[in-house]
Amino acid sequence: MIVVPRDKLRAVLAALGDEDPAPEGDQVIGLPGDPVDELVGTILSQHTRDSAAAHAALRAAFPTWDALRAAPESLVAEVIWSSGLARVKAHRIHLALNGLAEANGGQVTLAPLATAPLADARRWLAALPGVGPKTAACVLLFGLGRPVLPVDDHVHRCVTRLGLVPPGLTPVQSHAALEGALGDDTAAVRLLHTRLHGLSREVCRRDAPRCTECPLAPCCDFA
Questions:
Q1: Stated pTM of the model
Q2: Counting beta carbons within 10 angstroms of the beta carbon of residue 59, is it exposed (0 to 12), middle (13 to 18) or buried (19 or more)?
Q3: Structural domains in the chain, sorted by start
């Protein structure tokens, strides 16, 4: 059993700040209260650092999910071209929206997952065509407010260096351990993921980390 040191976890969260952050970096902020928009935005964010323009263009071109579903994939790809891998993403968006409609009597919604058992919600969402475990976790966390920590190589590097998890774990193992330690505290899950994801890109880089500039250096084993 992997034990996350609770004192260190509390120290890291305190150093990161107590503000409940909105998604940032390559996470797309969707329409308030619409987890389907978070799903589409997360698909757009795959393999790019800036998908906001493509997301805005998509919602302007197709104001309803039914309109988006009915549009030819070639047209969707043209609208989201700036996000990169546009044809692949257009296909994945269609697969995901059609999967939602088939599961909900023609209605494109994720509302049932807001109250479903968390393990069932995660498994059901990850099984949608075009949706993998990381995308499912992002939708559950940012779109539905569920305490799910998206598996992220950047965050894994940070938590290993900090000493929150022992070295040698896979990202899946480290995130499962952290989820267990954070429990139902969605704000803490979001804080840890969002702030460490950003920190890993600018400071806690894989090569040549800038430890002297890191706000977490006082509680970091690596620094």
A1: 0.87
A2: middle
A3: 6-22+148-219 (1.10.1670.10), 35-143 (1.10.340.30)
